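## retry 2 of 3
previous attempt timed out at serialization; input unchanged, resubmitting
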Amino acid sequence: MRHIELADGVDLAQWRDHARALLVAGVAPEHVSWSTRSSGTGSLFGNDDADDSSQDLPSSAATTAAAPRTPATATVPREFIALADKVIAHRDPQRHALLYRLLWRLTHGEPQLLKLITDDDVARARQHAKNVGRDLHKMTAFVRFRELSRGDGLPPVYIAWFEPEHYIVERCAPFFVRRFTGMHWSILTPYRSAHWDGESLRLDRGATRDQAPSDDLLEELWRSYYASIFNPARLKVTAMRSEMPVKYWKNLPEARLIPTLIREAHPRAQAMVAAAPTLPRKRMHEAAAPLRTLVEVVEGSLDEVREQARHCRRCALWEPATQTVFGSGPADAQVMLVGEQPGDREDLAGRPFVGPAGQLLDEALRAAGLERSQLYLTNTVKHFKFEPRGKDRLHKRADAREQGACRAWLDAELSRIQPRIIVCVGSMAASALIAPDFRLLQQRGRWFTLGNGVQAIATVHPAYLLRLPDEAARAAAYQDFVSDLQAVAEAAAQLP
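## retry succeeded, writing output
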């Protein structure tokens, strides 16, 4: 039996060095045991007995048995690296063994393993990655800094206490560096803490709750603001507790107000209904230009609707565009994918999703087990909107009026295709088909039931992934995108 003790259990590079060495030596997963030094990633909810003085933690610390640097002997899908980066941050003590088992299988006769979403190891790893992703989102949403004065003319330092479910501080800290670059801050957690001095990020040992301040002078002002913007008529307690679990309330300054606001919401909402309406002041507006219509959509086949759309003059977007970009795909498709609007390549080709975003979509569809040829792909808006920039045509988002002008074509496609599943790709499609106030990054990946029992799910647009500047963030976001599409593939497989 080969025993590997990792000094830092959340360092993917360190695990990879050992895993590569084990592969070269031909050591099967059942002959390896993995453990982590307590000083590297101790309990999430308490300090270790070891010396708790702050110390810099290396990004790839030395291990009990140093991992030899060996050349790669096999290749693995890029998807595995993105998956491993999240799985290794999970609190599961068996995560290292799980990752090595997946790696071994990928390099020993199962190169398509990650596509087998029903496989126990794959399903477990994907669930771990989803849990870590959710924890990252909660940390960015519910960290609250408290100001601590240092005197002597020094700028204040801002301290936050947070209790994550998983080992995510290293992965989340860069977000706060970008968000609060001009502040000096520390985020304390039970297993590891992050410190930013305005120039460099430092990771230290964990802390305890009493090492963080409990209040500051600004919190009363914040609570007053929070109470003033609270709308009792829009209160949904179940949804609020889902998005902001009770476990986080103890560290939120506004939390002490929530029970009272919930208790008083119903009588306040009734009082708002009973009160006389406030009439708006009359203001003069310019008369809106009438919709420029040529003909109404005709009854008939999908091809007849497509021909009508070629001559659309419902808004001004047709003038600079090359052509109408109508949907494409089988007329009896059970899954319909609705994007936002055509880009430069689509405008020239006359077909949706053929540019860089479309190529990334094709890659993700293959990874998720979906065949593009079996889907009907279209966009909310059918003409390319852009602004000239030299020889380039830069994409510009269609406004509400332009989206409304195109809605008739989208409705015509829906009525003729009659899909069982609709995939909204991007916020524009989700707002048009699911809810006007749809919050894409918060509500993506959930199922909604539309009219006639049609199931709808929303995900990000592949163009969003292409715009992400950080390679690691892009890889992680791509994996989440594939996961959303895998949910579609699973649902489609269950259709009669």
